[in-house]
TrEMBL record:
Descriptive protein name: 6-phosphogluconate dehydrogenase, decarboxylating
Organism of origin: Actinoplanes derwentensis
Phylogenetic classification of the source organism: Bacteria, Bacillati, Actinomycetota, Actinomycetes, Micromonosporales
Residues bound to NADP(+): 9-14, 32-34, 74-76, 102
Its job: Catalyzes the oxidative decarboxylation of 6-phosphogluconate to ribulose 5-phosphate and CO(2), with concomitant reduction of NADP to NADPH.
This protein's pathway: Carbohydrate degradation; pentose phosphate pathway; D-ribulose 5-phosphate from D-glucose 6-phosphate (oxidative stage): step 3/3
Amino acid sequence: QKAQIGVTGLAVMGRNLARNFARHGHTVALHNRSYGRTKELVEEFGHEGTFLPAESAEQFVASLERPRRVVIMVKAGPATDAVIDEFAPLLEEGDMLIDAGNAHYADTRRREAALKAKGLHFVGAGVSGGEEGALHGPSIMPGGPKESYEALGPLLEDIAAKVDGEPCCVHVGPDGAGHFVKMVHNGIEYADMQLIAEAYDLLRQVGGHSPAEIAGIFTNWNEGRLGSYLIEITAEVLKQVDAATGKPFVDIVVDRAEQKGTGRWTVQAALDLGVPVSGIAESVFARAISGGVPERTAATDAGLPGPAVTGQHAGDLRADVEQALFASKIVAYAQGFQQIQAASKEYGWDIDPGAMAKIWRDGCIIRAKFLDFIKQAYDKNPTLPTLLVDQYFLDAVSGAQDAWRRVAVTAAQQGIPAPGFSSALAYYDSLRASRLPAALIQGQRDFFGAHTYQRVDKPGSFHTLWAAEGRPEVDA
Ligand code: NBP
């Protein structure tokens, strides 16, 4: 008996993916650097399906039917290269190595090119949904050669989350496209989390609501257009009471948000592509500020002054915060999708943005009702320049903007940091401005560096002779 698929790397993610394949009736070959994990899996979960445990890479490879499909689920980075170096010499033309870890898309591009030269298929597959997703149905974003999807896609679609019977898995595009999209997914997740945190902070500090009351507000919002996994779990976290102290859980946790790096990668890639993902960037920086302990301590020790929190707000705070949250979320997603489209163009990936919204509707951390509208927007117009001009989102943002501005004002006046809300609003106002002060920046650049500028009234490049005896002359 041969296995349809093999998984090497059987820590929590790999183990759950292997079990998921087995539960769907596939025979799964198992391998891990140290045999202990393989043995443990078979002992604990062997009854869930058919597993072929292997003690060596050779035995593992021999137990797979052809073309061999080897899922790698090890710690991203050098471990992935080590596993590829171990397996590539044992594989034959047409076999597939599928990296399901959180690789950087540039590494995936490099690995795919190197393995292609050896006649092997390398598929960088983004897998979202954490350990629960891996077991019960993740959202899967496979890249790599299109032809490998023919042999691999049906298996991945089998174990993926489903919405109305449709799998949350699609071939994203060639080489690093899958890992790129997974990275942006995580960047959007950072922004979503930051915006939710700002909403909580305003409701607590300005609104004077307790964490338990705010949990109720989020539960209520979860029934509406904000309905999503992150809103749902936020309510759960806010409801939680610390058993030892009887205090709200959120009050006994140190307020320093950590990060593993995919948010930072998203912003780094966006800078290279020249795409303004300010919402994601603010959320990465907000985590950095929270963790910047020496500066925070110095600032509080020095007593940097701020206004009093009066609790006043020129409207219904709860309703206004919901609007600000929704509008800012739209901006963050609009920016993330713009980044995907820019990368798709840069690398020739031909990514269908609507399909990405479709496969994020379940199985992943940013799953939300909202994604249906994004899918519809791109179905209507695949080359939509920004989600903000799609009618649904345009209506939502128009309806929200007064409340959004009131929330930004309240935050600024009462000294409550809301970088996500305010930068999203600034982005919105920048996009809709008929004139931006960038004209002045062009003047400055031409002044100190003769960088030239373009005119509004005629074509061409111009430079002004700024220093000419105090009387500017224009040199066409
Ligand atoms: P870890 O990231 O903790 O990696 C542990 C696995 O890597 C073990 O199987 C270990 O083997 C193996 N490994 C290491 Br470390 N170095 C190795 C080497 N040089 N050669 C061969 N194997 C090596 O596992 P995880 O938490 O299950 O995550 C796996 C991947 O999934 C990572 O890329 C991670 O970023 C990603 N991830 C994704 C999500 C998500 O939501 N999508 C969540 C969590 C993780 P050993 O047993 O012999 O030490």
